[in-house]
Amino acid sequence: MKMNELKLIYFSPTGTTHKVVMETARSIDLKSVSFDLTIKKDLKPVAKFAPNDFALFAIPVYYGRVPALFLKYLDLFSGNGTPAALVATYGCREYEDALLELKTEVEKRGFKVIGAAAFPAEHSIVNSIGARRPNKADLKEASEYGISLNRIIKKEDSFASFDLKVPGNTPYRKYGKNVLFPKADVSLCTECSACAKICPAGAISLDNPKKTDHDKCIGCMKCVRFCKQKARYVSAFKLNMAAKKLTKVCQSDKKAEIFL
Predict the structure, then answer these.
(1) How many domains is the chain built from?
(2) 176-215, pLDDT tens digit by residue?
(3) How far apart are alpha carbons 71 and 85 in whole angstroms?
């Protein structure tokens, strides 16, 4: 089958998932079009992909699951037997049901999954866990994953017979409760509203960026990472508690897992 375009659909609040998916995409010999779902979207259909397009869906793992906000935005896309591959990044604990859930949800929308991969990454809350990952070795594996995908789409005339198996269980693991809500240090905040503009959940008001809507906040830490004034932060007490808990269950030397 002569392929048309590579469609990149990703959610990457702190940038690690973006690094992995872009490294994978570089090894796929197709012109690419990106859909960054980290930027808050109006819920209007964006695209219906053709059978000869190739879609690459990429997410960070939240609580062993696909982020609920990504699933909400996933309804903007539909395929027509369109081949697809998956990327999940996780903070060196476990990715649990995320790949299975992502595969199921993507295929519900008309795509056919032919490859999936889970990559360890720096933890979005406790940065010392998996620090500076994805590193060179991780990105090399992402590149090799892309090479394998490129080989498959060039070789196959039809993807209808693909039946990829990925780890995971149903019912899916329950989402945990977010307790790390970023706050604004009023002595540092200049009310530039940059945090409000980049918040993927729309949890920060443009008119009053010093406040965070706890009902909307997903704890992605994007506002904390990208505030130039260093005015956004989370409670030191809660952060220390989270660090103690996560250090016990996370392993910074986790390896990528690829399914083809």
Answers:
(1) 2
(2) 888 788 989 999 999 999 999 999 999 999 999 998 999 9
(3) 16
pLDDT of residue 42: 66
Residue 35's nearest CA partner among 94, 95, 93, 78 is 78
pLDDT of residue 157: 87
Spatial distance between the Cα atoms of 205 and 78, rounded to a whole number of angstroms:
31
Is this structure's pTM higher than 0.85? yes
> Same domain, yes or no, for 106 and 219?
no
pLDDT of res. 3 = 94
Residues 6+ apart with CB under 8 A from 241: none
Task: Classify residue 71 as exposed, middle or buried by CB count within 10 Å of its CB (0-12, 13-18, 19+).
Answer: middle
**Which CATH number goes with the domain that contains 102?**
3.40.50.360
CA dihedral 106, 112, 118, 123 (to 10 degrees): -20
* Rg for the chain, CA atoms, rounded: 19
- Under DSSP, the state recorded for 15 is S
What pLDDT, on a 0 to 100 scale, did the predictor assign at position 45? 67
Residues 65 and 10 in one domain: yes
